[in-house]
Structure formats: C-alpha cells, structure tokens
Write a structure and sequence with these properties.
Blueprint: H1 2-10, H2 25-32, H3 41-49, H4 53-63, H5 66-69, H6 75-103, H7 109-113, H8 117-125, E1 133-134, H9 137-150, E2 157-159, E3 166-168, H10 170-197, H11 209-232, H12 244-254, H13 261-284, H14 294-309, H15 311-314, H16 342-367, H17 373-389, E4 396-397, H18 399-407, H19 414-430, H20 439-449, H21 451-454, H22 459-466, H23 468-483, H24 486-506, E5 510-515, E6 522-524, E7 537-542, H25 551-562, H26 566-606, H27 618-626, E8 658-662, H28 671-686, E9 690-694, H29 698-706, E10 719-720, H30 723-733
Parallel strand pairs: 7-8, 8-9, 9-10
Antiparallel strand pairs: 1-4, 2-3, 5-6, 5-7
Helix pairs in contact: 6-9, 6-18, 6-19, 6-20, 8-17, 8-19, 9-10, 9-11, 9-16, 10-16, 10-17, 11-12, 11-20, 11-23, 11-24, 13-14, 13-20, 16-17, 16-24, 22-23, 23-24
C-alpha cells in the first residue's frame, strides 16, 4: 500500500483549465453540427448486392484463401518446417483417428477417413495457419450419442441356433451407424455453411471461455465412461437421454464381475506405459526438436504383441478387426434420417466451430495474423458436408495436434495437407497391418489424451478468486452436461449462461453520486470519504442498462436512494386535495342553507313579521335599521376554503430541487424504458422536483424521440452530455448569478 502511495506521489499530475458554456443536448447538436444523414435500407441493400469486377474478385479470393496465400508461399523459409510438422501430425492422426472412431461407435477405419478428406478441404478454404483439424474427442462422443441412439444393439439382434439364444449382427449394425454418422455430419456441415454465408460467425460469442472449458471437461467424462467397456471387456446396455451417464456407470459397476482379465491387463499396462513415455518425452523435448511419436510406437508394439500372443483367441481380447484398403466412393446422405437429428447436427456445428475458432484466434494473436470467423464457418462447413459424403464423421481441431504442429515448425496450412497425405499412404498400404490392434489400447490412448481436459477442474479454484459468477457458470455447465447428453447439456448451459447476464442486469448497483472536490468528477458517495453530495441536487446512477426486466427495480431504487417516494407523496397530495374539496363542498352547502334561511326571514319581515337575526348578523341589523328590507345583503362566511394540513409522517421529507439521472451506462432503451423515464419525469414534476438526464448515447436519444418522450413542453433542453453540465445548469437555474462557463 505504501509503495502504491509513493508511486502515486511520484506520478506527475498534469493540471488543465477548461472554460466553456454549459451545454444541453440541443447546444451540443448546434456546436458540433449534428449530421442527420442516414443511409436508407434500400440503399444499403442495393450496395450489398451490387457486383463489380474488383468486388467479385475480392469476394472470390476471400472465399478461396488458398488462391491468395499459396502463390506467395515462402518455399525456402517454410517448406522444411511444414514437411516435418506435417509428417509428425500425420503420425498422430493414425492412433487418434482410430481411437476416436470408437467414440463415434463406428469402425476404426472411418476415423482415418475423417483424418483425410476434411483436412484437404480445410487446406483450401481455411484461414488459420496453425490449427490441426481432424477427429476430436468431444465431437466424436457427440456423434456416438446419435449413432447409438438411432441404431442401438437391440435393433440388430438375430435369433441363434438355440430357441432362446440371439446374436448381434455387427456388420449390419456398423453399416447403419456409419450411415447415421455420415448423415448427421453432412447436416452439421450444411448448418455451418449457411451460418457462414449469412455472416453469422458471431454466434460463438455466446460460448464464453468458462462455458467451453467446463463443457469440454464434462464431455471428457462422457468419453471416459463410454470407453470403460473396452477397458474391462464388458458389454453394458446402451442408455440415452437425461441421466444416461449415471445409468451407464451403474450398469458398468454391475457387470464388473464379468471383466475380461486379459483386456484389463492390456488397458493397465498401456496406460502406465503411455503416461511414463509421455513424461520422458516431455523431458527429452528440450534436447530433441521433433517430438517422440509415443502413441504410434504404442500401437505398433501392441499390434505386434497381440499378433504374436494371439490375444483375440487365447484371452478373448477384442481387436480392431478388418481394415479395408483404399478409399470409398461418395454416398448420398440418408435424407429420411435428417428430421430426427436436426438438434444434434446444430449442436455439432456450434461446438465444432466454437472450439476451432477459439484455438485459431489464440494462434493468430500469437503469430500476428487474422482469422476470418465467417470464412472459418464456411471452411468447416465444407469440410463436414463434403466429408459426410465420404462416410466421415464431424471434425474440429485438436489442441494436442495443433501444439505438435506448431512446436515442430509448422507455419502454414501446407503442414495440414502433408499430414493428409500421410493418412492417404496409411489408408492405401499400411492400414491393414493394424487389424490385430486391441481396442483396449485405443481406449487407453483416449484416457491419456484426456488428462489435459481433466486438469481443467482447477478452473474452479481460480474462478472463485476472480469471478464467482463465472465459477457458477462453470460448475452448472459441468453438472448439466454430465446429467444430460452433450447436445442437451450444451443448450441448457448456454441458456443458463445467458440467464446469468439477465440476472446481473436485474441486480445492478444503484448509487447516489457526489462531486470530488475541485473537479468535474462524480463518484458514488458511499465509496469515497471525500466525495460530497451537491446541496439540493440528487444524482442517481445505475450500473446497468434500463429495459423491461429491471424498469420497476430502477424506480424502486430511485425512490430509496433519493429518499423521495413520489408515489406516496402524490397519493398524500391527492388525499389532501380530496379533503379540501370535501370541506369546500360542505362549507358551500352550509352557506347555501344559511342563505335560504335568511331569505325566508327577509320575506317574513316584508310581510310585517319581526325577523329573527342572530347576534352576529350585522347585515340584517343594518337592513332593519335602514328600513330597506328588500335590499338585504346576504354574505357567505369568509375563507371557507382554507384548509390547514399537517405533514404526513410517511412522506415528511425535504424535497431536492432537482434530480439528475446518469444514463451513461444505458446503451439502449425499449418501450418500457422510455415509458419509465417519462413517468419519472412526470411524477417528480408534479411533486415539484425537476428531473434532468445526462450521458445519453445517441441510440437512447433516438429511442426517446421515437417513444414520443419530447413534446412542446418537454424538449431536449433537459438532456446534458455530462453530469457536470447538468449540475451547473441546476445551480444556474436556482441562483441569480449567471454562470458563463465551466471552470476547472
């Protein structure tokens, strides 16, 4: 604290002096010469659809970035790094593609297809130089939830030789699941493509960093649970819908007695070996520029051991099985299935894009280039839609592969193209060599690759210290995604995240501002000891915008902070007015009755009878004395309307001369907000308190104009650009001395 004070004392204070007139909104418009020029919607549309030669060329080159950067590719500087990086990443694609295919509930070879076709498409249309697109655990488990829901094992049970026995038709099941995975991938690509064409790249802004990190952590839990059957060699029942993860865990625990010991040993040995090898690789990374392909070495060793020991036959260990060589011809998506997977496809589109653009922006900021968010949507959309035609499943980018691509010298999209060529060689020549690879080894690779996501639980502690609302979003996203499927969990998490924003606008900080002595700076009086309120002037400030959800609370806070409940005050005045009117009416009725009585007595006097006047009736005596009874003057009692009223204990307060509403945090006004400000101005005006507004943004002023806030009596002269202008105007209006300028 002392060091901060010393730094503050050492800091040079620059004095300044300003002299100007006090300006309201009309004065500012006049001095600054406000422009009323606006482009009509018709002109905007005409300009948007206008096509010229240079504009067409620019649009085409932005749509196909390859044509822009490839002709200027620095071959000498980047070629070697991209070659080494591409080979390294391609080697990683092999085990990860096969492993993540298990998550998608399709045969492993389709994970290799998904590591080939989409990468080539992204190479042509993508704008990020460093991310490695391809299979990704979160996307794969989301695909798996769709394929297993629409093609469960129970639909492919065929009767066996015995009367009560059945067997699973694996070939038909896998073929149907491949068709489902390809169709939902195609549809998600169409969604991404359409969003990109309509420039909807900002949709990712609804995915905050705490939400994304919690979601990937919860998805990792889904991934781990889904792979337990391969680690223990069991065959649990497939569950879908809410709480499916809980039911699966219970089912797995119930089947632990049927664990295949050989499969469990393979899993444990592989996990221990991978963790140890990765730690050694991290230590050796300082001396070896190229990372050690630990996963590739693992699957090679596991395949050789499985082949030599015949683990499938001797110990019942489940292996990958047949891997066909070559590429497949494109297949049209199953149109009949599209209606049952619209929500899943949209969730895949948003999650895949959100992860890719987040990682792409990180690398773009680090290496000083720009990533086009809308073009990234188009690139991913084309990668998924075209990949879906070739039986691929949805892709995104992987942090681990991207880090390897950067660390091994990758500097452009060429590295991705080279990694795709590595996968092509594997598909054509090498793939069939891994048919004896145990699936437990692929599950172990998935577990080890997810350890980074599981470390994200540390976010809870850091967010507790920095922002507790973000921590609540993190925890709720984790809980919702774990309890629901990843697609439903994402929708619920986004809804909850948006609700926290709404709640924060409904619970802003309301305060009364005071002046920092000798300055034009105004701060909340409760936060500063030297800040004092301006006598007779209340300055009300809200930290949030004003709209329908918090309009009523805004008024309540205004009444509370200013100490003036206008509603009660006006109600009390109405009661006093009604009481006064009743007394006037009663007095008038009494006077009328008295007048009739006097008239009757006057008539009797004219007929010779002695009138009966009261002792206090001077007019009657005067009439009798003068003998002119026909000119009798009847006077009503004086001051009958005078009502003396005491103060109401509930509203007994000293009213301020003026109230200034600081609207600088308000960035928009809806109809309810305009009506609220109109009522505040009207009600306080009826109570004898003038209301002024300051810090209004242009959109707020336009909303007030459209909402008929202003009229012949209420003009823009009640609007001021700053709090200080409004304060000086109030002081000027309540003093004889005219202030010509603002002196600081």
């Amino acid at each position: 604290m002392e060091e901060e004070m010393k730094d503050k004392d050492l800091r040079k204070r620059v004095p300044y002096h300003i002299q100007r007139d006090v300006l309201d909104e009309l004065g500012v418009d006049q001095v600054a010469e406000k422009s009323d020029f606006k482009i009509s919607a018709k002109e905007k549309f005409r300009e948007a659809v206008r096509c010229t030669g240079p504009r067409f060329k620019s649009c085409f080159l932005s749509f196909v970035p390859l044509l822009t950067w490839l002709p200027r590719y620095p071959f000498r500087e980047n070629a070697i790094g991209d070659l080494i990086s591409g080979i390294s990443v391609g080697i990683m694609h092999l085990p990860q593609g096969m492993a993540y295919a298990l998550l998608a509930a399709v045969p492993p070879v389709f994970g290799l297809y998904s590591s080939f076709y989409p990468i080539l498409i992204y190479f042509i249309f993508g704008t990020s130089k460093h991310i490695s697109v391809g299979t990704y655990a979160v996307m794969s488990v989301m695909i798996g939830s769709v394929t297993e829901r629409l093609a469960p094992d129970s639909d492919f049970m065929i009767p066996g030789n015995d009367t009560n026995s059945t067997s699973l038709d694996i070939v038909s099941r896998d073929a149907e699941r491949v068709k489902i995975a390809a169709t939902v991938t195609f549809l998600s690509g169409i969604f991404q493509l359409l969003l990109g064409l309509v420039r909807f790249g900002f949709v990712v802004t609804y995915l905050s960093e705490p939400l994304v990190r919690a979601y990937t952590t919860a998805a990792a839990i889904h991934v781990i649970v889904s792979q337990l059957k391969y680690s223990f060699g069991i065959n649990p029942q497939r569950y879908s819908g809410p709480l499916s993860l809980i039911y699966t865990i219970i089912e797995d625990c119930a089947l632990l007695g049927q664990t295949n010991i050989g499969t469990l040993v393979v899993s444990i040995v592989t996990i221990i070996g991978l963790v140890a090898a990765k730690e050694l690789s991290a230590l050796a990374a300082r001396k070896i520029p190229i990372p050690i392909p630990v996963e590739l070495i693992t699957i090679i060793i596991a395949t050789v051991v499985s082949w030599q020991m015949d683990l499938k036959t001797e110990y019942g260990v489940e292996v990958v099985g047949k891997i066909p060589s070559g590429l497949q011809a494109p297949v049209a998506p199953a149109v009949s299935l599209l209606g049952s997977m619209v929500g899943d496809a949209f969730a895949l589109a948003v999650v895949g894009y959100g992860i890719a653009i987040s990682l792409g922006r990180i690398f773009a900021l680090k290496y000083a280039y720009k990533v086009d968010s809308n073009q990234e949507l188009i690139a991913l959309g084309l990668s998924n839609s075209i990949g879906g035609l070739f039986n691929c499943f949805a892709i995104s980018c992987s942090m681990s592969r991207s880090m390897v691509q950067v660390s091994t010298g990758g500097k452009s999209q060429v590295a991705g193209a080279i990694s795709a060529l590595v996968i092509l060689v594997i598909l054509l020549k090498i793939g069939e060599l891994f048919e004896e690879l145990p699936k437990a080894v692929l599950a172990a690779i998935i577990y080890v690759n997810l350890q980074g996501m599981m470390k994200q639980f540390g976010d809870i502690r850091s967010l507790w210290r920095t922002n507790k609302v973000d921590m609540v979003v993190w925890v709720m996203t984790l809980i919702l995604t774990v309890l629901f499927n990843p697609d439903m969990g994402l929708a619920a998490s986004i809804a909850f995240s948006i609700l926290t924003v709404v709640f924060r606008t409904q619970l802003p900080k309301y305060s009364i501002l005071g002046q920092v002595p000798g300055t034009d700076i105004y701060k909340p009086v409760e936060d500063y000891n030297q800040v004092k309120e301006i006598p007779g002037i209340m300055i009300f400030h809200s930290s949030a915008t004003l709209y329908f959800a918090n309009a009523e609370m805004y008024i309540d806070a205004l009444y509370e902070k200013t100490g003036v409940d206008v509603a009660k005050l006006l109600s009390h005045k109405k009661k006093l007015e009604a009481k006064r009117l009743r007394k006037e009416k009663k007095a008038a009725k009494k006077a009328k009755k008295e007048a009739k009585k006097r008239a009757k007595e006057a008539v009797k006097a004219a007929e010779g009878e002695e009138p009966k006047f009261s002792d206090t009736d001077e007019s009657g005596e005067e009439a009798e004395a003068n003998g002119d009874v026909h000119k009798l003057s009847v006077k009503e009692p004086k001051d009958v309307a005078a009502v003396e009223v005491g103060p109401d204990p509930d509203t007994d307060t000293t009213l301020p001369q003026a109230i200034i509403l600081d609207l600088s945090p308000v960035n928009f006004l809806d109809t309810v907000g305009v009506k609220t400000l109109r009522n505040i101005y009207k009600d306080y005006g009826e109570a004898g308190v003038q209301v002024y507004f300051c810090g209004c943004q242009r959109g707020v002023v336009e909303s007030m104009e459209k909402g008929d806030f202003f009229n012949e009596k209420v003009t823009k002269s009640i609007l001021f650009s700053s709090v200080h202008d409004a304060v000086l105007y109030c002081q000027q209006g309540n003093s004889e001395e005219v202030i010509q300028g603002t002196h600081l």
